[in-house]
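#struct-help
A.M.: can someone run this one for me? Single chain, 850 residues.
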Amino acid sequence: MPRIPLTWLAEHVTVPAGLTAEQLAADLVRVGLEEEAIHAAAVTGPLVVGEVVERTPEPQKNGKTINWCRVDVGAEHNEPGGAPRGIVCGAHNFDVGDRVVVALPGAVLPGPFPIASRKTYGHVSDGMICSARELGLGEDHAGIIVLATLGIDAPVGTDARELLGLGEEVLEINVTPDRGYCFSMRGVAREYAHSTGATFTDPALPLPPAAPGGGFAVEIDDRAPIHGVPGVDRFVAQVVRGVRATDPSPTWMQRRLQQAGMRAINLAVDVTNYVMLDLGQPLHAYDLAKVAEPIVVRRARVGETLRTLDDQVRTLDPQDLLVTDSPGERGGRIIGLAGVMGGGDSEVGETTTDLLVEAAHWDPITVARTARRHKLPSEAAKRYERGVDPQLAHVAVARVVALLVEHGGGTPDEAVTDLDRTTAPATIELPADLPARLVGVPYTADEVRETLTQIGCEVSGDGDVLHVLPPTWRPDLTVGVELVEEVARLRGYDAIPSILPAAPAGRGLTEAQRRRRAVARALADSGLVEVLSYPFVGVDQLDALALPADDERRRAVRLLNPLAETQPLMRTSLLVTLLDTARRNVSRGEQDLAVFEVGLVTLPVAGAAAAPQLPGGVRPSDEDLAAVVASVPPQPRHVAGVFTGLREGAGWWGAGRRADHTDAIAAAELVAGVVGVPVTLVADADHAPWHPGRCARLETTDGVVVGWAGELHPNVVAAHGLPARAAAFEVDLDALLAAAPTEPLQATEVSTFPVAKEDVALVVDAAVPAQDVLDAVRTGAGASEAGDVLEDVRLFDVYTGEQLGDGLRSLAFSLRLRAADRTLTAAETAGVRDSVVAEAARRFGATLRA
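D.P.: on it. Structure tokens below:
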């Protein structure tokens, strides 16, 4: 995001005295440039110009020699009585009479590094004489700053923060992709003028055309343009000879680069970066001795490589546009990746004296694809892919050459290469009443014409239709609605009334939406906390679930451009990301967890056809759209939960209860119950990531599997660093909704007669699932002579012991019985109990526990 130093902005637009970064942010947001951050001054507190009046070298026992100095920092800052301050300094590049920069106690330097009076080397040092590095002005820390060497003559006591630009706030703004011209001081200054009416002075006023002929030879050989658009339509170059290219750039320039977030390197590099930040035109300076004439712009060939300025060797793609030189049998040496980054073989070095300065107008799509292909989000690419003014190249080269000559000496060649194949923007026909109709504000034709002229458009036509020629720096203005957006933006978004449309009657949530929300509320009411995780996963996360190699959940959609290289897959199970969420919470000390998530999973179909590549600019055919829809993998909505640690905390009532598989099964049954679908629990011996023998499969009455619940496998628990015996469930919510009854739920009349209770303890083989016994209890109760009087049944105890014998267990059920028309007699409730025992005995050989 671009950073805006206020003094730099003031060179292009009139700003009021005392303008703050906060006020600037408020002014810019009115025209759509949002504040990203405000960066405080690099130095706070007293930083002043001082003059060395005494310097006494003092050798130390460690072999080091320090200087005990007396420094006059002005009447306001000297010691009481006017005596100069005493300061210890380890540098030796100054002498008595030199004026230096002094940080007084209370100052805070970049780091942050607070300054205070302290005893050192046998003296009390009452401040610090500063080097460029200590002030954040450069990398030089070997010697302190002597102002005379910088051409600065300031009185003693002068505020050095203002003198060196160190007390200035910097505003960082957020720029939308369609307004690339705001990646420059020129663009932001123009927008500030639109917002406040301040006078804007364009620093890129057109130069006289370059003299025809001569200049460094350049050839364009783009025989395979992407989407029919040439990769470059303007290329400007000029030679400067005898330049001190590797000298440091001026202090003011280094400071501005640092304020803008860039590192100062040397004069040649800093000047090109400075002009880019100022005008918005990226440039490149080649070592002329390393470049052979002519330069040829062409596409890459298969197998070609390039070592870029970041010292990485990159394998090129045939769609990459290159800058090459000296074409021969092999097509020329590659000296740059067009619009993205220069090559390492032609960069400026210690011996460089002659430079070839280049600026071009590259195709945005070509640059964007190359930058993403090679993962090179350079400052140049950032600007080119958003659109650069094609008229800037000549102006920017002239600015760079002038700065190089001013600060590095040298002589520019008179001839300038300017290969110009640009075309003027197309005129847009705009109905004069279109902005009013679309925005809802009664803009007049004169207001529309005035606004469009203000942003640089040439507007003609006095009738109902305006003919608008956009400026070259606004490549985003191509159709009428984009002009309407500009009218609304500059006339003020606050002038647009907020009118909410009336909601039509009879609309609302669908039945599926209501049930999904009911599921989330029910889980939250039962004590679970809802979370939301990203749906991107990696192979290592699937491995942590202990999924078999042939498990269908390992067949996942792979993203071409993932947010993280370690997570390139779309999740096929909610537990993959939910367990990662649980792991993160447990690692931060939250051991007792009950969390759930409702979200989509992506389940690609084996052998499914890939989505067709559709042409741009035309509506796809119905067949193409159908093929696109068919290629989209199913994305059902699941609900999953994880339980760790204690489900019920300990207290005065006794010890707490650890969460186990029954909690996960109960939560899964709760989901099915809220949706209104009866499910059956079936023991599942082997289904990762659950523990064999402690996992239940949920099936509908039609035999459709809708989920699993139970205790997680110990290996899965260990892989995620969770407490032992953690449990989880995952249910296909869409499958449940598909099986849900479509008829409205009919409420049953509440009986006014009292409830009767019966407890039945059945001894069965230990291998018989409790769910099967529960089904037998329900069937037996309904078959009694008393009729269907079973209101509720609950398993409340499981017992094994020597009294029962090996291989047996007792399952105790609590029955609530109630009739709708009478009070049940003792004989009737006993008959229900006997019917239950008889049915369990018939199915499993169960006996009534004594």
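A.M.: thanks! The CA atoms of residues 221 and 663 lie 70 Å apart.
D.P.: also worth noting: The chain has six domains: 3-37+173-196, 47-164, 218-420, 428-495, 511-607+630-739, 756-848.
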